[in-house]
Amino acid sequence: MSTTYAALLRGINVSGHRRVPMPELRLVLQELGHRDVRTHLQSGNAVFTTDAGAGAADESALATALEDAIERRFGFRVDCLVRSGAYLRAVADACPFPAAELEGRQLHVTYYSAPVEPERFAALDQEAFLPEEFRLGDRALYLYAPNGLGRSKLADALARPALVKGLVATTRNWNTVAKLVEMTADAADETPG
Q1: pLDDT tens across 91-115, in order?
Q2: Is 133 in contact with 94 (CB distance < 8 Å)?
Q3: Global pTM?
Q4: What local confidence, expressed as pLDDT, does residue 188 receive?
Q5: With contact defined as beta carbons under 8 Å apart, do 152 and 132 qualify?
Q6: Strands (DSSP E) along the chain, which ranges?
Q7: Is there a single domain that holds both residue 73 and residue 97?
Q8: What is the domain range of residue 170?
Q9: What's the pLDDT tens digit per position in 10-49?
Q10: Are residues 47 and 5 in contact, defined by beta-carbon separation less than 8 angstroms?
Q11: What CATH number is attached to the domain comprising 20?
Q12: CATH number at residue 134
């Protein structure tokens, strides 16, 4: 059975550092045996189809294989999260904010490598950051930042090392979240299972 996934690479192609050209990323994924490989933007978003199952263990194994392949090709390691199209759709559908009413730059999802307990953020005084807000989801955090991520004091607070210790975390704006849902759905529709 084929499953369509998105690979979310963390911290590449930022200010000319840790450069991973998208054509080469597509090639790396193809060399790993994946097909229907496509990328979105230059910030490390790739969609691919593979015959692996759709469980969390499969996602973790796919991410590790991609991290290893990137390190071999480029000489540096990049944290990667791999999520199935079905998971991405579920995260989008569970958004606690009115996504259709907001600009894409105002709403973000931070994907985590593991579930995040509310206790991790208990010491954070959410009222001090209003009108910015966050809500936890399944291995995800939804952030409403009305002035965008670059000006968000709450985003800075949520990224403190003590709060994300032991986790891989990578954030995408809502436009990218929606595009990855669309791309993984399209690939799944085209791939016979």
Answers
A1: 999 999 999 999 999 999 999 999 9
A2: no
A3: 0.91
A4: 54
A5: yes
A6: 3-9, 35-40, 45-50, 80-84, 107-112, 133-136, 140-144, 169-173
A7: no
A8: 93-174
A9: 988 776 778 899 999 999 999 999 999 999 987 789 999 9
A10: yes
A11: 3.30.70.1280
A12: 3.30.70
